[in-house]
Design a protein that fits this description.
Strand content: over 45%
Shape: rod-shaped
Largest sheet: 6 strands, mixed
Helix content: under 10%
Mean pLDDT: 83
Number of helices: 1
Number of strands: 29
Order of helices and strands: EEEEEEEEEEEEEEEEEEEEEEEEEEEHEE
Radius of gyration: 48 Å
Length: about 375
């Protein structure tokens, strides 16, 4: 009679199993044992002292082991009853590498998953990997094939701290397994350069501001979004949320009273680029013709001859401002009276380097 046994039972793929056979007979049996697993032959082993054994690594799944004795001159051939055993799938370890880490918005990130097999597991793994970011499947990486135990997924991740998970599907020999890793995806830093179209400013002048937004990472191109301009902390009318064109926005405004003018250009940022602000400090000078004059007074308001000297006029000085300057000077000199002004020698010629005029004044009360 032939009996078969298996040890250990209920193992995991990659673990060795020993199948043993014992032949019971009146005389010491000789001959051989052929071990089978289901319909397949494992090995034929010579009896020694009535026993034989065979050690190997069975694949995962259900097995039915049996031993067939060949017989000899005194002992008839016999076959054992089958002994069943179930071998569990091996559980691999998944290593996940993410690069670059950290990353920028819109930058390609590569996640590399690799399988580490248990000792003794020699079957090449098959199956696929599925990648997710923050629990959402990455559509292009839902079933990535394995080559030499490795699968890769390249994708663009959303801004913030992201969790990437790689899940192995498993196959006939290996159980499913997964691993997760994190990557921080940040927006690209920017700077704003703010310039004025005029080198010197005077009240009620038209000036144009130009804001240029530059990305710290040039490969991402010119930033999009908008810029809002402000003067002394107050929004400039018509210059809020000015759209960037090739990274540039402009704002036209009218200067105010003399003094220091603090200008800012604030970039809004977007899902790719961080917000930033540029600043510029300008000085608004006095009116073009608002210069002191000098006069000589003859009589008590009856007659006045004033020599009024405005000096050289800047190119943008206009004649109405010049007249206004003279009028203010006369009012300051003789009081708030009705005046008749005769201005000699003033011509609308801005190329004249000196503007000197005789003003004859007579008042009526």
């Amino acid at each position: 009679m032939t009996a078969v046994s298996v040890s250990p039972q209920g193992g995991t793929y990659g673990t060795s199993v020993t199948v043993s056979a014992t032949v019971s007979a009146a005389d010491a049996p000789t001959g051989s044992i052929t071990f089978t697993d289901g319909s397949g032959t494992l090995a034929t082993v010579q009896l020694a002292g009535g026993t034989a054994s065979y050690t190997y690594i069975p694949g995962a799944g259900s097995h039915s082991f049996a031993a067939a004795y060949s017989g000899d001159g005194s002992t008839a051939a016999s076959t054992s009853a089958a002994v069943t055993d179930t071998i569990a799938k091996a559980v691999p370890v998944v290593n996940l590498a993410i690069s670059p880490e950290p990353a920028m918005v819109n930058e390609q990130v590569t996640s590399t998953a690799s399988l580490v097999l248990p000792s003794g597991a020699i079957a090449a793994p098959t199956g696929t990997f599925a990648f997710t970011v923050n629990g959402t499947p990455i559509s292009s990486c839902s079933a990535v094939g394995i080559a030499n135990g490795v699968a890769q997924c390249t994708s663009v991740l959303p801004a913030g701290t992201d969790t990437i998970t790689a899940t192995y599907s498993g196959d006939a020999s290996y159980a499913t397994a997964s691993a997760s890793g994190s990557d921080t995806v940040g927006q690209v830093a920017t700077t704003v350069s703010l310039t004025s179209s005029l080198q010197t400013l005077h009240p009620s002048e038209q000036d144009t501001l130009t804001a240029v937004v530059t990305s710290q990472v040039t490969t991402f191109g010119a930033p999009g979004g908008s810029v809002s301009f402000a003067a002394d902390g107050a929004a400039i009318q018509g210059c809020t949320n000015t759209a960037l064109v090739n990274g540039t926005a402009t704002c036209s405004y009218t200067t105010g009273t003399p003094g220091t003018l603090s200008l800012t250009a604030s970039y809004s940022g977007n899902d790719v680029f961080l917000a930033s602000t540029g600043s510029l400090s300008l000085t608004v000078g006095p009116n073009h013709c608002d210069l002191p004059g000098r006069g000589w007074h003859f009589g008590a308001y009856e007659h006045l001859l004033a020599r009024f000297d405005c000096g050289p006029l800047p190119p943008r000085c206009d004649l109405p401002h010049f007249w206004q300057c003279i009028d203010h000077w006369i009012h300051a000199a003789v009081g708030d009276v009705r005046t008749e002004i005769a201005i000699n020698g003033i011509q609308d010629d801005h190329s004249d380097p000196n503007r000197s005029s005789d003003i004859h004044f007579s008042n009526s009360r």
